[in-house]
Amino acid sequence: MKESSADPKYRRILLKLSGEALKGSEGSGIHTEAVESVCSQIREIKDLGVQVAVVVGGGNIFRGLGASERGMDRVTADNMGMLATVINSLAMMDILERMGVHTRVMSAVRIEALAEPYIRRRAVRHMEKGRLVILAAGTGNPYFSTDTAASLRAMEISAELMIKATNVDGVYSADPRKMEDAEFYRNITYMDILTRELRIMDLTAISLLKDNRIPVRVINMNSHGILKRVITGEDVGTLIS
User: Fold this and answer.
1) 3, 153, 155, 208 — which has fewest CB within 10 A?
2) Is 117 helix (H, G, I), strand (E, B) or coil?
3) Is residue 3 part of a domain?
């Protein structure tokens, strides 16, 4: 039987979202319409039978690194940032559940009244049973970004692909919003990112992904239907491998 173009090319993926994806046109915080837009795209790929884990940042609420640069204790600031990711995760869970997507929030920081503790085998079992898992609170440790947390979780759950959702079309040689002549890369290696010092992710995340050979597709989450296009094998955004 000929494979349909709508058939998924991946069995299990990890989606890394920035907190900014949830604020929409607002300056900060959670914008319901923005969250609904993101969740509707996630539901599209869940409906294809793909096992999905999500790691979401907290920058729309609180950015730990920025606060530490302004004088706050770094550990305290990062702990607050981890709690911000829990808030975003609960907001996404609420909307996904209303869309009919069975969802579990699992936190690296123990907060049982609000979320399950993150246990790798339990997370994998949830996905195998058709549930979407949102992995909150980063790694549970200060000094590590949510990009690093996403890379670590992608390895732990044996994701076939990590999708990093941004607000630009992929990886460029410079910020395309500031430099019109920035070069777009359709494909790029992890080593090229490291040597060219491209700031698509922090160096720890890049090194983890490189050492474990997990491909990353960098996409513009504002593009309609982009997640489904990636999952069905369309060459969109930038592939890092």
Assistant:
1) 3
2) strand
3) no
Using DSSP's 3-state secondary structure scheme, residue 87 falls into helix
Band of pLDDT at residue 66, cut at 50, 70 and 90:
confident
CA–CA distance, 51 with 132 (Å, rounded to integer) = 7
Is 5 a domain residue? no
Domain count, the chain: 1
Domain presence at residue 48: yes
| Residue-wise pLDDT tens digits, 10-52 | 999 999 999 989 988 777 899 999 999 999 999 999 999 999 9
Is 166 in a helix, a strand, or coil?
strand
Note the pTM of the prediction, 2 decimals. 0.94
CATH at 122:
3.40.1160.10
Q: Which domain holds residue 205?
A: 12-240
Cβ distance 19 to 83 under 8 Å? no
